[in-house]
Amino acid sequence: MSDITADELKALIEQTYKVEEEYVALRRSYTHLQDTIEQVVEFLPNAIWILEQDGTVFLQNSKAKELTDLLPTLSLDSDDYEVLHQGFSYLIKTVHYKDKYLLSATDITEQKRKENLATMGQMAAHLSHEIRNPIGSISLLSSTLMKRVLPENRSIVSEIQKSTYRIERIIKATLLFSKGVKVHMEGLSFKELLESLHAAIGYYSFAKEIHFDFPEENFTLKGDMELLSMLFTNLVFNAIDAIELDENEDGHVRMTYKDDDAYHIFYIYDSGIAIENAHLLFEAFHSTKERGNGLGLQLSRRIAQAHGGDVVLLDGEQKIFEVRLHK
User: Fold this and answer.
1) Cα-flanking dihedrals φ and ψ of residue 31, to 5°?
2) Which residues contact 312 (CB under 8 A, 6 or more apart)?
3) Residue 302, SS3?
């Protein structure tokens, strides 16, 4: 082996430094690329896992870390499928590229809920249309029968009328839910609204002695008489049902009124049972009580919102509903 000259040694050292600089630059570029990929994966709105061939995690974002229990239930052999996990629905997509698996889980719970609501609404509307005509006949015949029946049988006919009224309300609520709330604004007095509410209570069936305390003052509102009547009857009937399930022999429903610069504000309280699953109160077709179709409070909120206001359940031990209607 020949001796290396000084110039050759110098050139070799310079070449070594150059290779090292290139390696450092390449390493920096790789690190930057890896950081960019991690940031992109983290930025994605769904849970992302990148797995090795043996199933171990190579890379995952924070949303994937929140769903650690979901990963072991996923299949690497299926492409697109849905899974239900802890009450949530997820759309799972799987891609196999070279020696890695890419899995994504997208929360489609809200989408599925809307699809189910739309389907249920269509079915309910169809059934309501089919039921409306025979119920109308029963209502008409029961009114005729009440004029001719023996006094001792009037209570039986009265119960038929109350049951018919209840079905008619369910039909009206279902059709209103499926078609949407359309407001016909006009001036009306609270006295008119209260008279409608008292008439509705007279048709509602309940066994306990219930005291109703409503505002005595009269004032003018701007809104849709039929819709506002439905809003308040829904809330009062909800209160009656809560009292019927209570252990006490009697109960009371109280409504108070407050006027401010922008809104008519009503507070409705009842002495009945406490509300369970309050987060489902305004969810369509989800009833928190045995007696109900799950549309009353949801429609009440829609009606209030169509009048520029809202219906909310106030926090606290007493279950008080606040109704706001824009002036």
Assistant:
1) -65, -40
2) 321, 322
3) helix
Closest to 282 (Cα-Cα) out of 312, 257, 245: 312
Buried b (16+ CB within 10 A) or exposed e, 57-69: eebbbebbeebee
Question: Which amino acid type is present at position 198?
Answer: H
Q: Which helix (H) or strand (E) holds 149?
A: none
Query: pLDDT tens digits for 239-254?
Result: 999 899 888 889 999 9
Give the Cα separation of 267 and 323 in Å (integer).
6
Identify which has the larger pLDDT, 94 or 22.
Answer: 94
pTM above 0.70, yes or no: no
> Domains of the chain by range and CATH?
6-109 (3.30.450), 110-180 (1.10.287), 183-327 (3.30.565.10)
SS3 of residue 189 by DSSP: strand
| Alpha carbon distance 283, 215 (integer Å) | 29
Q: How many residues are recorded in the chain? A: 327
Which contiguous run of DSSP H or E holds residue 245?
none
Asked whether the predicted pLDDT for residue 183 surpasses 50, the reply is: yes
Question: Quick count: other Cβ atoms within 10 Å of Cβ 186?
Answer: 10
Rounded Cα gap, residues 114 and 121, in angstroms = 10
Beta-carbon contacts of residue 38 (< 8 Å; ≥ 6 apart): 59
| Residue with token string 């003018």 | 220
Please answer whether residues 214 and 197 qualify as being in contact, where contact means their C-beta atoms are separated by less than 8 angstroms: yes
The answer to whether 92 and 74 have CB atoms below 8 angstroms apart is: yes
Are the beta carbons of 36 and 44 closer than 8 angstroms? no
Q: Which of 199, 230, 220 is nearest to 301 (CA)?
A: 230
Q: How confident is the model at residue 134 (pLDDT cuts 50, 70, 90)?
A: confident
Interstrand relation of 88-97 and 80-85 (parallel, antiparallel or unpaired): antiparallel
Q: What is the mean pLDDT of the chain?
A: 83
Cβ(180)–Cβ(125) below 8 Å? no
